[in-house]
Amino acid sequence: MSGQVLLLRGINVGGHGKLPMADLRALLDTLGAGGARTYLQSGNAVCPEPVEPGAVADQIEANHGFRPMIVSLDAAQWQTRIASHSFPTDAPKALHGFFHVGPPLDPAPLSPLLGETEQLSSQPGVLWLHTPEGIGRSRVAAKLSRAPVTARNWNTIAAISALLEGL
User: Fold this and answer.
1) Closest residue by Cα to residue 9 from 141, 152, 124
2) What 3-state DSSP class applies to 90?
3) Of 54, 105, 153, 158, which one is least surrounded by beta carbons within 10 A?
């Protein structure tokens, strides 16, 4: 499998961070992505040909007035990260991957914030959070919202994987 996954942080439907996915696809194509596909209105893109994430961020900043953090993964890196959790996927909205660049995040400072049923696992490039009672109640998720990560639930991860496989 080939291709590249781009996960943009802070992309919204309206207000600050507004970036229509049609604009993102067009931008990626001008940078050589060769038929990029997007999922949802939240900054998920799959490219048949790799693009430089810094160039993507530069163009978004120039054209839309903000610079998103971008996690860029080739197909093998994506597969390794999504295979690194040990949590059930039968409730896909309960499993969240917090993707980042760099070494594994230290989960120790977050462990005291875990709810009674929550579980946390740190792997290279992704921190997994299982929230059976919902992410809205998670103090860990609230704390991570201020960290340099971009989160996706298992439904979104599966959809991105399907786009990648369809290249």
Assistant:
1) 152
2) coil
3) 54
